[in-house]
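ARCHIVE CARD
SHELF: 3
SLOT: left
DATA:
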Amino acid sequence: MTAILAGASFRTGMMMITCVPTGRRTGTSDPQPAPKPQEATPGMTGPTVTNAASTARALFHTAPRCVEIREVPAPRVVGGEVLVRTLCSGISGGTERLVYRGEVPADLALDDTIDALGGTFSYPFAYGYACVGEVIESGQPVFAFHPHQDLFAARVADLIPLPAVDPASATLLPLVETALQVTLDAGTGYRDRVVVLGAGVLGLLTTLLLHRAGWRPLLVEPLAWRRELAGRVGAIAVAPEDLADEKVPLVIDASGNPDAPAMALSMLAHEGTLLIASWFGTKPVVLPLGGAFHRRRLTIRSSQVSTVPARLSGTWTRSRRQRETVELLAELPLAELCTHVFAFGHAAEAFRAVDEGIPGLMHAVLDYDRSAAGDM
């Protein structure tokens, strides 16, 4: 971790509230180590434990660029469930930034594939999908696709057991799995050049996995500090103006920039493919689909992690992809990407930092132990 941020916040009774669309960070503290990983213990079930707490704390989006930490009734387990105490949760710099800005359709389902994400993007709603914690009954470290909340009940079948890995780094599991799916969607290309647009977390992880798969990936990123970080973890990155004038069979857009797909089409060789990993929300994307697009027989495809495409169903399932992702947690340089850690009580500051794209921030992590210790 390169930064631990305490931040400023406002208290109203028992609720942490903020609704400030702009503004810089107001305070920092000396770097602290991430929470130590717990040793894995076999199984996640155990004797029934009565939850002594009467409430839990959960983060809600209440308006564009407004989040609140609210007290909610303490979860009670039913058959097949266990209680999970959250250690860390991650804020996605792609999807969650769009959600924070209000740039998603209000009537869109939060996620049809995750039980913990019911309802739509109509305010107020809880959202998030990267909680790392421990099962209270057994101490088993687990990952859960669950909104930001300090204590929750989850079905054992929905939890992903984790090895002894850094909890903050493990919050990147969804992005590692997405990068793996993008790599699978890219197909085979031994020593073929592939251009990846955007050196955010997804673009960088995808580049590293493409290299493992035999491609010759090249990252294109306008921010110098991102290019430098990419170089430190083993990726090759160039500025857009330094991109060689060569046509490539595949371009992957992971930038989140609505102007990127149009630029990508001009980079493709005859019968080349543009693979779009970005989700643009409500932002319009203009594509030049005139003579050059048709004459070169170009293809535009999307990549999405919620499903495994039919063409891969003979060898890949969601469970296999998940297992491979867990193994990758210890193999990829995830700790270097978890650049900023915020106490859960200062989640509003964390979202502002992600929204503003402050220099040096790759992945923001919420630390629940710091909040529990009174750092609010």
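SLOT: right
DATA:
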Amino acid sequence: MTNQRASYFLTGLFGLTLLFSSYNLRAQEYDSLNFKPLFNGKDLTGWVDVNTSGDTWKVEDGVLICSGKPIGVMRSDRQYENFIMEIEWMHMEPGGNSGVFIWSEGTPFKDSRLAKGMEVQMLELEWATQHDRTDAYVHGELFPTMDMTAVPENPRGNRSKSIEKRCKGKGQWNKYLIIAVDGNVKLAINGKFVNGIRDSSRKKGYLCLESEGSEIHFRNIRIMELPDGVINPEEIAPLVD
């Protein structure tokens, strides 16, 4: 091998080494973005009862069962900022009402039994009929509760409503995919993005599961945490002791 050919060979080998090193680094960074369970399918590890009762939540056959009584919430044991969350839910009664709160304070707000946060609503299909409301009230609404603020993509007052009805009725599982980044939320229902809300006044807080009068089941609750963003102290929920 001539000196020139040897030089080309070594240069090429060095280039391949850098390429594979860079690839392995990116792969390691990508592998760090993975889903972790929020519910282990066995017990309530990772969750804190806020204002319900010992009979409100139980686990059977890998399913988290909420009786709906009394009205209140159960919160995560830590706060989350930017993330992708998956959760499957199924109402057991016609007209059932529940939801998951994100970026929440994780405590009852003033005289309410519910918490301040961004609610991702879970309504059973017969709710609007039972309460003599129009079809404007549909599952999958996104809205800030209490004195939080945000800008709805598909407005119904301060709420953002789903642009397509995709949920199944009582006794059938539904899947929500929630992408929450820098105060903006996108919601996919059963495999299709149908709602969004932006510019939330709160960007970091607790997750809460809601008990609101009727039995609902949850399963396959998991989260992928994303990198932190630029955030001001007032955009973070107070820590709960």
